[in-house]
Amino acid sequence: MNNPVIRVELVSKTFRTRKGGVEAVRDFSLDIERGEVVCVVGASGCGKSTVLNMVAGFIRPTTGKILLDGEEIKGIEPRCGMIFQSYALFPWLTVLDNVAFGSRMKGVSRKERYRCARRWIGLVGLRGFEDAYPGELSGGMQQRVALSRVLANEPQVLLCDEPFAALDAMTRQIMQQELLRIVRESSKTVLFITHSIDEALILSDRLVVMSARPGMVKATFDNDLPRPRHMDIQLTEDFLRLKRRVWELVQKEVVKSMSQK
């Protein structure tokens, strides 16, 4: 990759505790191209979210560096939009005002921020719910609001920390399809953390398997499953063959992780 949007160069992270240092990530390197969807899977506690938080600039690496368009990330990075597992919506604001909130904080005019918010609300399939409050919406609808709020800030990169994990199976599949559609239409670059191999295979252009703590890149897989991808692709031999390869590696790291406890 010549000019990756994101370049993670030999990054390590050690957290200091009262009992000493805990090395969460060690010598982690990853390049992500513009418009690419990269999914990271691995055992619980392997450092997936730590990597994501370092890319977002929420925490700094102990060693190594992370570049966005060639510039080192040294603080919270406004060009990255983070989507969390929790919806983190303001319950006292309508859908429209939740989505427009980031633009409001930037000083964008009321007319322009509402125009932009309505566009993204429509793109995630919530047109007609602009005046609803979060408590009046289902979990899947609230996550769509959270997604549109991030997109309304026009981030260059979407960072997703298991955003669909709390949803029921049917809603989760719908949201996966929605994300694929939105990424296709907006050409966003995505770094997506998940425990689900199925989800990673549906969404990704490339899949990264992390080792047990300290998290390192165990393996990468180019995902050549045909696009557009629908849920029935999970029944194909190609999908199952790739899933078995990924699962064999993840399973070894899960066993290793359990032996550390």
Supply the number of helical segments.
7
Structural class by sheet pairing and helices: alpha/beta
**What oligomeric state do these chains adopt?**
single chain
Order of secondary-structure elements: EEEHEEEHHHEHEHEEH
Unreliable runs: none
- The fraction of residues assigned to DSSP E strands is 15-25%
Identify the strand order in the major beta sheet: 6-7-8-3-9-10
Mean pLDDT: 91
Secondary structure blueprint with pairings:
Blueprint: E1 6-17, E2 20-32, E3 37-41, H1 48-56, E4 63-68, E5 71-72, E6 80-83, H2 95-105, H3 110-123, H4 139-152, E7 157-161, H5 169-186, E8 189-193, H6 197-203, E9 206-210, E10 217-222, H7 237-260
Parallel strand pairs: 3-8, 3-9, 6-7, 7-8
Antiparallel strand pairs: 1-2, 1-4, 4-5, 9-10
Helix pairs in contact: 2-3, 2-4, 3-4
